[in-house]
Amino acid sequence: MSATPPSQAAPAAPAPRASAAGVRRRSKAPTPRGLRLLWALCFAGAVFNLLMGVCGGLMRIGTLPPHLAAPNAWHGALMVGGVFGTLISLERAVAVRRRWGVVAPLAAAAGGLALLAGQVMAAWALWMAAAAVLLALYALTLRVRWTLHGGVEAAGALAWGIGTAAAALGAPSAASLIGWCAFLLLTIVGERRELSQFVRLRAASRWAFNLSAAAVMAAVALAWVAPHAAVQLWWAACCALALWLLACDFAPRQWRAPQWRGHAAQALSVGYAWLLVAGLLGLTGALPDAGVQSLDGTALHALLLGFVFAMVFGHAPIMLPALAGITPGYVPWARAAVWLLAASLLLRIGATHAGWPMGRALAGAGHAAALALFAAAMLTGIARRAQRGV
Known about the structure:
Layout: E1 3-4, H1 33-61, H2 75-96, H3 103-116, H4 120-144, H5 148-169, H6 173-195, E2 200-201, H7 203-222, H8 227-248, H9 259-284, H10 298-324, H11 334-354, H12 357-388
Antiparallel strand pairs: 1-2
Helix pairs in contact: 1-2, 1-3, 1-12, 2-3, 2-4, 2-6, 3-4, 4-5, 5-6, 5-7, 6-7, 6-8, 6-10, 7-8, 8-9, 9-10, 9-11, 10-11, 11-12
């Protein structure tokens, strides 16, 4: 899966897109103030859900006492739907600039609030509605011009809806978990595939990507009837996509690049490595949570914490201008958050394997500290840019 690098280095993270994949350019007309307020409300909802999700995770891992954390038996679902579902839908709604598109992030954020309030079925209904609107946004853009990466991201939105339907209908737990995780994975790799257009890929590399993405959706479907086989296919697809990203994406080649480009390259490369680790842990069953249960344990946290949050850390400095019109100044110590999260996740895996509760609690504190450190870096970058009057 080799690739020939372009004559000039491309950015390691997506530049702010004027539209969704293959979509018409944004209108030059000013955005109505009411719509901007709704976007801000969606973002605030995602942040609140994130805080509650982090508190719930710290409670479950033993870092916080139960009475100090948000009561939530659906911690993972809250993070996927209430946080990332809101942010991904918001990015699409902002890109496409359709008034009805804001329904997707609003429903996703409201679903998280419903879950926190114990209204589980209401949360599932809101997330299925959000997934349907998000899929409609992708369909709108793909109708203008079909692109492979847009189709992959649309498949991710479909997987979100399928996973939520599985939870609502009481299907095997693997069906909902694989659907939710596939939503995040396909959205991320779809965007990275879009950027690989800067790289001349060989036919074998293109086919490897296509088959790996298809295997993800096959696992989503198979989980309803054969969960054990679906789990194995899922983790195999994760390994395949991780290897593809490490070999074909240009981010690992820009490790020493300056400022945010180098920050993104390091964060993404670390995330790709964690995706591979997650796949290998799930396939080998080397830890106690092997098989279907690996979707509830170490392998899942390697995927969601190690891979997904590394993508957040890498893309946030680029996506903030696209979502909020805010460009943060470069903060060198933002990279420390990437490595702190990786170190705390390694501690968590080791503590889980050794049966060391205190180590798991310390790892949870490290996860929270990494998130807080990165948030502080972004706020510092925004303040520095504001001081310069840029």
